[in-house]
Amino acid sequence: MGVVRNLRQVSADDAGVDVAFRADVHAGLSQRPKAIPARWFYDTTGSALFEDITALPEYYPTRSETELLRRHAVELAEAIGAGRAVVELGSGSSTKTPLLFEAIAPSAYVPVDISGDFLRDSAAGLASRFPGLPVYAVEADFTQRVELPREICPLPKLGFFPGSTIGNMVARTAVDLLRNWRATLGDGALMLIGVDRIKDVALLERAYDDPAGVTAAFNLNLLERINRELGGDIPVENFSHRAVWNDVHARIEMHLVADCDVEFGVDGRRYAMAKDETIHSENSHKYGPRDASLLLRAGGWTPLASWDDVDPAFALILAEA
Ligand code: AVJ
């Protein structure tokens, strides 16, 4: 790709990410039950595997949400209006973003993502596709406080949080994040958020345990990443992928299950797991209409409209600060 003149990158320091990954892994492997935050799935390999997941026939959220953006482009344009700076949380490959842009004609684009390589490629792609649009790529963890580029401060803002990524957080963390972004985006801001609905358990479990094994590879890549980046010797071949619906918490849980007793080191620290013990690697919470509305209100946002009419059910909700 040549020089893209409407693109600027605001990078976090790599050392920071590395230190946080190490700390989360040691803390997570030391607690019982073991658990590692889902954000660490997204190294370059993991981000590419996630893209493959979104193309699986069983993984409906991406298709449902894309369909909603397409079908309701006119209503979205009416409700949001033109000229907003779009701040996308966890932009990944930004595949749905052009659909939104065609609907609402934004004045600037600020993709925020923790996966630097992925962010750079997709931001560059968008900047060349929309040459009149200033793009400020921010490499950062959107669950932390993020400083927006000064240039966009005077512009009215739209937070764009697609893909049901909010589902990765337990309610209290989700509320913290929504309140944080309410403060960062400021008065007058809007938020367009994708939320996955509660539905048939078999359909949900298949979406997170596909027969082709792509989701299994995505989950197991977390262990490979630990081996690659933190000098681990985890015997990845002794682990299996598990995805189960937890009805009490209304969420899909992903786990890495030890198939036999295992012992391994990470960075010189030793860990042991008994056969069938798991590392809880992801939650994907699902929300009914009132659940989602309550969550948004608790986070300081007032729901204005929701588009929720595809099968399998998925909702796009527009809320105001
Ligand atoms: C990117 C967090 C929305 O929870 O559906 C997909 C991640 N994990 N398959 C989700 C994921 C397994 C995904 N999110």
UniProtKB/TrEMBL annotation:
- Write out the entry's keywords from A to Z: Methyltransferase, Transferase
Any one biological process term the GO annotation gives: methylation
Indicate whether Cell inner membrane appears among the record's keywords. Answer: no
Enzyme class, first EC level, given as a word? transferase
Q: Which Gene3D superfamilies match?
A: Vaccinia Virus protein VP39 (3.40.50.150)
Highest taxon in the source lineage? Bacteria
Q: What is its EC number?
A: 2.1.1.44
All copies of the Histidine-specific methyltransferase SAM-dependent domain together span: 21-320
In its UniProt record, a GO molecular function of this protein is: L-histidine N(alpha)-methyltransferase activity
Under the heading NCBIfam families, the entry gives: egtD_ergothio
Would you tell me the protein name for this molecule?
L-histidine N(Alpha)-methyltransferase
Native organism is Sphingopyxis jiangsuensis
Question: What gene does the UniProt entry assign to this protein?
Answer: egtD
